[in-house]
Amino acid sequence: MRLAFAFLVFSLALDVVLFGREALYGTAPSLTELSAARHALAQGFLLPLMVSMASRLLPIYSADVLRRRALLEVTIDLLLVGALVRVGAEAIGGYAGLAGSLVALGGALGVAGFIVFAFGMWSALGRLPKATRSLG
Fold this sequence. Notes:
With 136 residues, the chain is mostly helical. The protein has one domain. The chain has five helices and no strands. The model has no long low-confidence stretch (mean pLDDT 91).
């Protein structure tokens, strides 16, 4: 989770630099620079935070994560590596050439991480205890 908070700090710093540059020099941030800051916040910070909080707050999923810790680690790792690849490619190269392929790879890794999370949540919810009828 430390890397997720690093993404939060990076996103805020990038926003300050981009808008500071615009205020001082009149150079507006490019679409890809703004997208890098947005994805650093959303894909690099919010998604891993949401997944890790779900593993602590949702009782059925929490019990499942305790038994299969690797599932949570794979999920968080996919989200963070995807964010790192995507944000780095957007910040440095934009969408053209190799950078465009890296942006797509980062997005695909993020989607794969969220699919792993959704599968873990779905399988945990499939094992809910059955309700019993009271005889009262």
